[in-house]
Amino acid sequence: MKWRERSNPTRATGGGKPNADTEADQLYLRARVIARGGDSDMAVRLFEDAIARAPQFDAAVEAQAELLDMTGHSDEAKAKYTEARSIRAATRQGPPDRPFAVRQRGNFRSEISAYDTVLRSLKKNALPYIARGNAYLTSGKPEQALADYERALKLKPGLLDVQAIKAEALSAMGKYDEALTTIDAVLTARPSDAEALSTRSVILMGLGRPDDANADLNRQLALLPTSQAAARACIALRLAAYELAFAELDSVIARQPHDPYWRLYQATARMRLGQPPASTPVVAQGPWPAILLAFQAGQASEQDVMAQADTDCRRAEAWFQFGAHVASRDLEVAKRHWRQVVDHAAPSLIEHAAARNELKRIGG
User: Which domains does the chain have, with CATH numbers?
Assistant: First the structure.
């Protein structure tokens, strides 16, 4: 089933109000209330239940660590603090060419709960709705985000920044036609808004209009100064413009030498340009995307990679690399892999746009 046809776990059913909280969220909130009431043991168990349902719920892991620390279980607390840090370190943030509000990723239930409290006394203020909407959006809950952005716009109509991020929420829900109308209005008022151009390029990719999306990407690229090398590199990768990407990535890696994604993307650009691989040693062990670097170096198989590709995003990254790896030898196999990316990956991913442009270039 294609990604845009999949059901969203936070989607409203039967036309009712979207369910803002998953079961893990509800357990987390209940645990916080019980902890404040003094029953630490019960709260620890509820946090554990929340983590069992959502293993990447770093806020729940950290809250459990704090309770364990307060109740004298220091060794268990240290392990939980380490686990929370590891979850955050392994969470891939949004690429730097995208609008600021969608670059953060994670579970922001604590922040949402705080904004809930603020809104009980400031219901006529747009700012808490915007802030809570952003927290929902970065938590992967665009329906709830959209509801808050619409409340904010009712209170203060004409806020272009809110209209732009509303378009992001609509896009994340697969409502591309409505998203395009919304972001077009922003760009009519601010034609040189680089972040709005990024938003529209994603929407156009979702609508299957890569030529129009590429035009916006090129306009965005022209607006960004050379000092924003990381953002420029991401745009070049979306365009499958590997010479430009390779040049920009040199300076990015010099500034961020420990980010494995930059090395992965530079190795991909090198491969697509027909250059020999770098002599930099590859560490096959470690968190994702180490396995992709190992695959590029011939130290891991496709099966090894897919065994670790446990999210939609990671599967898309893997399929793209499989296509890039085989393209010089078998274009038909490469096409199949890149079509998987286009069919199953969200259009906000670098790999989605890059795969569309690879296919466009080779007539796929």
Answer: 18-90 (1.25.40.10), 100-223 (1.25.40.10), 229-362 (no CATH)
